[in-house]
Design goal:
Layout (H helix, E strand, L loop, with lengths): L17 E6 L2 E6 L10 H16 L5 E6 L10 H4 L19 H7 L5 E5 L3 E2 L3 H5 L3 E5 L3 E3 L10 H7 L5 H10 L3 E2 H6 L5 E3 L4 H13 L3 H14 L4 H16 L2 H11 L8
Parallel strand pairs: 2-3, 3-4, 4-6, 5-7, 6-9
Antiparallel strand pairs: 1-2, 7-8
Amino acid sequence: MTENSETVSLEGLTFTTLKLDLKDHIFTITLSRPEAKNAINPVMSNELIYALDYARQERNIRVVILAAEGDVFCAGGDLRSMSGKAGDGPVSNVPKRGETDDISLRLRHLNKPVIARIQGPVLAGALLLVCNSTHAYAADHAHFSAPEIKRGIWPFMVMASLFRVMNKRQGLDFIMRGERLTASEAEKNGLINKAVPADDLDATVSKIAAQLASLAPGTMQIGLAAYNEQEDMAFDPALPLLRARLEECLKSDDAKEGIAAFLEKRQPNWD
């Protein structure tokens, strides 16, 4: 993974395509280009990578929510910028930390819960945000599509993550014909956890985020890292790896606190 290991700070930075909010251990990253259907241009790509790096390093951040302004969650890659016709816009002073494909890697290796809050349509490269989140909840009027084939393009970068959440036959049909999936169909095919009435979306996401934020943050990171390590391993070599991660977990402060709280019949304190 292309990653800069230096400590990052938000101080003095101007994010021009995102809005960031941290409350109760929940870090909300909101796509804020509604006039462009939240299409991912190079500035948004870099700002997302930076925000995710910040989320990874901060123990105080236990859950990340990916949200969006406007009627569209995200229209995928900005075709105008891809064609070399990017227009002028607000200047971002967020340091460069990676390329667009690094968004998927940052999400996948964040090793913290990430909830995609999908209030509207998800198109093309935006599927990377959904597929690489650990959870995804959508308003029931939202729809999902990979329309690249209709523009003479193939969704190459989407495939790596798409086929880890959808079965191959449904996933291939999805990208080969470029047709929409309704939120209900996306739920049935494993693309999202659940489709809910639009009026219930905020409450649903808030409930799941609060529950995840209340759980052992260090153990969550160890567990998600182990999940990613063993995902593509054969069964036999996966077991020694998972045994080693279990031993690491049992020695952790979170496990010690959780066991002590159980024996003392109190709520654990993860701070």
